[in-house]
Design a protein that fits this description.
By secondary structure, this protein is an alpha+beta fold. It is built from nine helices and 13 strands. It is about 20% helix and about 20% strand. The strands form three sheets. Strands 5, 6, 7, 8, 9, 10, 11, 12 and 13 form a nine-stranded antiparallel β-sheet that branches. Strands 1-2 form a two-stranded antiparallel sheet. Helix 5 (about 120-130) crosses helix 6 (about 135-140). About 30% of the residues are buried.
Length: about 375
Amino acid sequence: MSKKAKTQEAPEVETPKVETQKVEMAKVSRPPLDWGTVLSWGITGLMVAGLVLVLLKINPFKSDTEIVDNVDPVHSLNIPLPNLASELPVNNLIRVANINTSVPEGVRQFAVKYTVVPGDSLFTIAKVYGVTAESILWANYEMLNDDPTFLKEGWVLTIPPTNGIYYKWKEGDTIEKIAEKYFADPDEIITWPGNNLDIANLNTEYLTGVNVMIPGGYRELVSWIVPVDFAPRAGATKTIAGPGGCITPETGPIGGFLQWPVGSRYLTGFDFTSYHLGIDLAAAEGTPVFASAAGTVVYAGWNDSGYGNLVAIDHNNGDKTIYAHLSQLYVSCGQDVSSGQGIALSGNTGKSTGGHLHYEIRRNGQYLNPWQVLP
């Protein structure tokens, strides 16, 4: 081939190397996408937006129909309110709601009636109904006359709902006067539910002839104990009711420490109180009764004052012991006895409703509480 032909041949075109190198360098220098960083920034943005909404008190989930709670119903609604109880006409005393009234659960609010059955005593009846015997005496004065031993089968007693005075209201009485008379709290009278008092209108004229409970009230009881016989060394009175007394000698055995007259040492009736100056010891009919100490029998027989068959022993040292409601006597008036000697059998005679022994201790004319004297 000639040199001319070679020079006319088209030259080869070369690809620019510079541009290709730039593209390859760009691919190599771009970093890969970091999704963890993107996610963290997204969470951060949401937290910031939430804080902004809290600060601006904006609730994005709040419904447009939500009810507003802070509306004042008195000023927003024009509804007339009822009149106060004191503005209404009052024809009777009406019990109204009182949040201050406090009555223990299980306590009766009203009095009930109880019919006496054989074997009853005021002590046992009071225990059954959860009130004191004094409260029953106060509620039945016209029948019992404060005598706790005088119960008859078939009598219907009023049992008050709680301890205190069950009082029949009289014309002219007021809450303040009755509370002062019976040492009670006026508020307790007003708030006792069974009294049906309207605290908004305490017009008590409507209570005349109605029984009202005086919670916690009390009065003095008249003692039914009577002097038994004459004994010069015991300081007793000469007045006696019944045929069991006698003239006793000036001297006789001198007693020592007093002992229990029966084997039992628990009550079956009344305890020692200001109106019951002895104790009623458990002793079924026919239980042996013993002299508490040596002495002289100064009474033995029936007693008309309520003791029934009675033995009284003068211990010739200022002490005297009384044993009442006996069924059978083993001693006679004027007889000397020794300590622990059998003198009678217990019974249910006189003002008694169940076998027991009524026992008294008198010292120089004063009544002693046997629990404080006997061993």
